[in-house]
Amino acid sequence: MGRQNPSIETTYGWVVVLASLALHSIALGAPTILFVALKPIAADLDTARAVPSLAYSLLMVGAGIGGIAMGRWMDRYGVMQPVLFGSVMICLGALLAGHAEDRWSLFIATGVFIGLLGKAAMIAPLVANVTRWFDRRRGLAVAILTSGQGLAGAVWPPIVQHFNDLVGWRGTFLYFAGFGVATMVPAALLLRPRPPIAAPDRPAAGTSSGDERRVLDLPPHVAQIMLWIAVIGCCTAMSVPIVHLVSHVTDQGYTLQQGARALSVLFVAAFLSRLGFGVLADRIGPVRTLLIGSASMAAMLLAFAFATSYTGLFIAALLFGLGFSGIMPCYPLIIRLLFPVKQLGGRIAAQYMFAASGMALGGWLGGITFDLTGRYQPAFLIAFAFNAVNFVVMGFFHFRQTRLRLAPHPA
Q1: pLDDT of residue 24
Q2: What is the pTM for the complete model shown?
Q3: Short-list 396, 381, 394, 238, CA closest to 323
Q4: Of 58, 178, 351, 356, which has the maximum CB count within 10 A?
Q5: How far apart are CA 43 and CA 109, in angstroms?
Q6: Measured between alpha carbons, how far is 168 from 273 in angstroms, rounded to an integer?
Q7: Is 200 exposed, middle or buried (0-12, 13-18, 19+ CB in 10 A)?
Q8: CA distance 86 to 105
Q9: Exposed, middle or buried: residue 411 (CB in 10 Å: 0-12, 13-18, 19+)?
Q10: pLDDT value at position 85?
Q11: How far is residue 160's CA from residue 168's CA, in Å, rounded to a whole number?
């Protein structure tokens, strides 16, 4: 075997990771307002819960669609420009949301400004950029960045709940807008340097020397579509408790503070376990790691459906956070494992677009199911069914990978 190419990793790569983590975590404050203050928003606008749920869904759909354009912008001009633009748009959207007078103005503020023009720059472009700074510790770097979801979920719910009690949901949006300008713009400026140029990679794992266009001995578009189906399944499932846990806890007779606490512990667990899942993915492969997270999430969705005590709901939230956090970092690693590096940005952006669609579907599904049935148990059972689809698809990937004896870790 030949000697390995020198590593491209530099100290500044970790500055990029931390700045990206901060941007991702702060940006998630805007959607957090929607689901922590879901009931007050619905009451103030005199609408059903499906309306703020749909506002969240439109935000996620917008972020997914906009991510494709943001990824192309990044490929051409570097990551700083789209991220700086997205930061300003998120703050502008929060300002508009704070002045929303009806459902349509709320939808425009969240779906267009916060989602399509803002949050679209805060995940796929950041992940794709970070992968280009690392070749030896790529899994750890991606895990740190994507742990922003857990960090944001641990920090934002109690802050949002406090400000909602103090100044209402409108005031909370306005305070967030000011905080976002003061923090996200400086963080975006740290992303100005371009990543180092990597040496040419080996052919992607999953290809054969006779036909490099095949992935796991499947046509590439078939493998990609299956990954899209898998991510829609898991994201639809995980979105139901994320968006509706606070409302579900309060519907059981507990306080808003207890609901926010349960959501916080879910995200604290996710934050703490995500780095461990990143290391695990480097050791046993991202496909197996994803299956572990999917199985854990399925079990806890059933627990949410049938638990009624606060202790039971709290424990379910804790274990759900430990499990679901291991799923999303695996997708860019799987794409890195199976597809050529030159396709990385576009494929990761497309994957996150379908992930956002799943999150949007789950958020809306939870709200409309409650409006139709008056309870959340059916929504959690539907989420379990979506999660089962994810497990089956990724189980098929694992079977193909094992049968073809492919390397279980990124090339």
Answers
A1: 95
A2: 0.74
A3: 238
A4: 356
A5: 19
A6: 33
A7: exposed
A8: 19
A9: middle
A10: 97
A11: 9
Q: Scanning the structure block, which residue is given the tokens 């990771």? A: 17
Instruction: Give 291-319 pLDDT, tens digit per residue.
Output: 999 999 999 999 999 988 999 999 999 99
**Cα–Cα distance, 155 to 267 (Å, whole number):** 9
User: Bridge partners of 218?
Assistant: 215
Quickly list H helices, 285-376: 286-306, 310-324, 330-338, 344-373
Taking the CB of residue 140, how many other CB atoms lie within 10 A of it? Answer: 17
Q: Name the E strands within 192-271.
A: none
SS (H, E, C) 38-51: HHHHHHHCCCCCHH
Question: Which structure tokens are listed for 43?
Answer: 């009451």
The dihedral sign for the CA sequence 120, 126, 131, 137: negative
Q: At 41, which amino acid appears?
A: I
Q: Which two tokens stand for residue 177?
A: 């807008």
Judge whether 326 and 290 are in contact, CB under 8 Å. yes
Helix, strand, or coil here: 294? helix
